[in-house]
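Title: Prediction job returns without error message
Component: structure pipeline
Severity: low
Priority: P3
Assignee: unassigned

Description:
Job completed but the reporter wants confirmation the result is attached to the right record. Sequence as submitted:
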Amino acid sequence: MKLLILSDTHGNYPLAIKALEMAGQIDQIIHLGDGIDDARIIEEITGHRIIKVPGNCDLSAPEPREILTVLAGKLFLVTHGDNYNVKAGLARLHKKACDENADIVLYGHTHASFAGELDGMLFVNPGCLRYKWPITSYAIISIDADRASARICPISA
């Protein structure tokens, strides 16, 4: 299974569409907020159903602020991250992930990409796709059999 992970598009859905084109064949798109309207536009344009959560800038969005979902046999914790103060570190999000027994944790909010393991859990922040942001990126997660891996993919307008 191949997943495209997006976050913090902040109105720049055209760059998200470019990321989708660059990613090639994918099985699922996940948007981590601060641009949930962008996720809806991408759904309309592409016909892909997107798993999405709102961020702190997505005022009055009806979607839940976090989701637990199973994809390819892995339990994903999907959140924007602001509720866990991820700009100050991953301690609170790590505790939540441990409490939920998550395999993969997806978060945004910091605008800084990250992909790495903490206590056997894969944590991924795809970075930011905001207009005029100095470094823009998305993430690809691949799940083969029982192994999951992530890579950060730089992209420019």
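Comment from assignee: result matches the submitted record. The beta strands are 2-6, 28-31, 50-52, 66-71, 74-79, 104-106, 114-118, 121-125, 137-144, 147-154.
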